Amino acid sequence: MGEELTERQRRSWWATLLDLVLPAECAGCGHTGTGDVIEGLCSTCALTLSGPPVLVRHARRPSGLPPVHALAPYREPVADIIVAQKEHNRLDLARPLGRRLARAVLAASPGAAAVWLIPAPSARSSTRRRGQDPVRRMACAAAGEMRVLGHTANVLPALRHQRRVADQVGLTHQERAQNLRGALAVRPAAVWRLTQRPAVLVDDVTTSGATLAEAARAIRADGGRPIGAAVIAATRFSGR
Question: What is the pTM assigned to this prediction?
């Protein structure tokens, strides 16, 4: 307990120092003000991500999709927060989002003594354009939070694209599944590790579930065991 408190105090002091040095703007609503915005979020927007994880019920559940837990519906301000991290270079959001995502990971892996967190891979072109991999950064923060809480968790970037895929925006559920079918593969260096502990897939948003289903298929094909998935938000959300 003492170590956990010390770690949380350290984070709070660091966030406060940054807030004093840099102008803080909430990624969700744009509110500014020293002391009002902590780690990129005002208290109101942070509250939208504070509830318990909810099991997502996809409209047409793709074959092989493991249970998916989400923290919030994909609507404002959560949608703006996710876009800010992914497209607007808000690197300060990876840590607070990842710490919250850890709750969804724990819900997706009940009773597991140790897990791999496997981020959904970004296309190379997207990573180059953004200058970062937001999902992987968020997964690292989630794993760190889980270790603070006494769990064994590490990030394993096991997946890669083995062919080009079209932009998913505007595609139907069936078209998304077809677009992604066979698109992912496990990196050879990760195959042995996958067999050592179960895996929880991590992404920022789930819409049709096609990306997570394809990730799970690729992991199973090389002997891995995807027991669940965790996301920040879902377009189909039946929680509070």
Answer: 0.85
